[in-house]
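If you are new to this repository, start here. Below is one unmodified record pulled from the training split, so you can see the exact layout before writing a loader.
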Amino acid sequence: MKKIAIPALPGAILLTLAFAILASAQVLRPGDYAVEMLKAEDARRYDAAVEKFLTGKHEERVVVRALLATGRIGDERAVAAVSALLKGGSPKVREMAAFALGEIESIKAADAILETLRASDVPDAVRARAVEAAGKIAGANVNPVRVQGIADNPKVVELGDAILDTLEAEEAKRMLRHRDTVLLGLTAALRARPDGGDAVVALFLTNLDARIRSDAANTLARLRAKNANLALRGMLMSDDDPTARANAARALGSAEDKESINILIDAATEDEDSRVRVSAIRTLAALRDPYAVDRLLAHGEKLLAKARTGSRSGRVTRQAKQAASPAEKSELLEIATTLGRLIPKTNDARTVKFLTALGEADRYRSPETEIAFARIAPKKYSEYLVAKDEKSKLAPWAVDAALLGIRELAGLGTTDEEIALKKDAVEQLSKSLTRFAAGGQSPTAMSMPELLQSLAVFKPEGYEREIRESLKYDDPIIRSTAAQILEGLPANAANIDALKAAFERTFLIDKKYNDAPLAILDAIFTMDKKGSVSTFVRAANSPDHLVRQRALRMLSDKDLQNVPEAVAARSKIDMRVQPYEPKAGTKLGQILNTDADYRRAAARKNGSVRAVLTTQKGTFTIDLLPEDAPLTVDNFVKLARSGYFNGLEVHRVVPNFVMQDGDPRGDGNGGPGWTIRCEVNMVPYDRGAVGMALSGKDTGGSQWFVTHSPQPHLDGGYTVFGRVNETDMKVVDKIVRGDLIVSVRIVEDALRRR
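And here is the target side for that same chain:
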């Protein structure tokens, strides 16, 4: 065999060639292009540095990563470049291009998606993501007031029709149908809500795949379809998959199918799976038929007795600050809520006895019990509140829960007794407000928003002034709530001046939360946008990207297009997310990560890091997914290692939906004092998915949740950054609101990196 002779070269030339080779290959090293993409995403920046990866010749993995970044950034200027890759890239590139167009949500991408769905030679994986994108784009651009006869954008209609055509084509393939296309198509139909969608979706209720049946029922429930009740009843009675049965129950409730009452009662009281029972219980509330009360109440009494026995026997251990709540609590609260809807104002003695016992067993922690009691027996509930106050010192949460019960009395009628009860309720609310203003410990700052909202429901004389005064409190969530209430009140000078003064104060003092400035801006805009341009200009200079974004939207309103001050301000607003500056005094809405942070986050691989959570109900592990959500995982790891999550109370559990934690306030509004951007990805919200809770795009911080069952409507909207396996989900299923996360320990294999 002949060899090609290579002449000897001087060392300097060899060194030069070596550097040239390294330089040309540098862009392909994961640590480089991945870091560059993370930086672009963090700044929400679509520019030439990102576009070069979409338009030049690069390795497939580089282009795929750049497309994901482009979708996350969401700039519609990228539509043309991404559409070109959807048409002419490799299968993996085309798949990610379709996903990215769905995330951008621009109607300008409709033609590219429609062309893909109508083509006959498109790979299944690409078609699946294209139908998903059709749903996202149509859902984001659908006319929200279509009931008033205003037509949708024609492209929205075309996208909806294409979704249904795709589903029908898959159904016709029978055993050869592509599973992901069907699943993503069902969720797309949920988002786009095309005419005739319910009939097409119903075709999949008898599919051999349990997940497809389940998702079809979920879509029908959200469409409030009434065309498949017989099939849904059959599913509820005999399907072997609990999620499918649970979703069938939900769909029957959405359809208001009163003929399924006996089937639903059986499911609510006898199904072996609590997820099914809970869904059936909620559906009984929607049907509002008192016929269900006897068996539902008997089931509740049985569960309560079991919970009490478990607590006395010591099977529920005492850890950290408090005893764990019984696992039956979530289902009992669902029963209480449903009873309150089924027999209002009946003064039913047996139900009152049950609710009283449930309140005592739960240490008066849960508003569901209070609300149900107030609905069923208003006078007895008032007496119950007095008796409760006369008992030994109540914890603040007991008073907080009662505030929501008191609010229910606002719906009473005009009899002498009902008028007297409403008057007493207003007096109790006023006393609570006075106690808080004087520095009392009950109600707490966490319950003040509920108190203010209750006052707004009763509308007592002088309450508007009380709401304005609440804009002066230090707690940002109280001020945010006050602003939201004022937004719905008359646009008089007192309200407008109070809001403008509150904005100036919140602009200076709110360093950890942006709820108040955003809510106050919204209220000012509603009341007096033309007279408040200077306030919007002030907001446009905020270091917080989210506040600047809101200000730009307001200054761009059609009524301010020709206002000189607004025109000048719009031209100067820099909407790029800025690097953190200590002199700003806040970390909100800024880039907090350093180059070292990006490189550390990009270096981790799936399987290299996990979080071990010890709770009052046992231990479970989250397998974190740094390849899918690198910065979200890095943020979670930092918080966990600092002890941030240790001892926090689980503040939200919605059975058959999510368990949520990570809030230091405990009211659902808390966070770490900064926000992180979303890292949407293709990981689905199956059972056991771990996601970041949000109050809007890019508002994550420390709150996270685990899904009890598949939640496809969350896909592509909330960051998935971990998974809990089925064995450990048995622990998650037992956790109820009020339980503690005792500790979170991070276990990382530093050797398993890119």
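Two things worth knowing about this chain: The CA atoms of residues 170 and 176 lie 8 Å apart. The longest helix spans residues 416-437.
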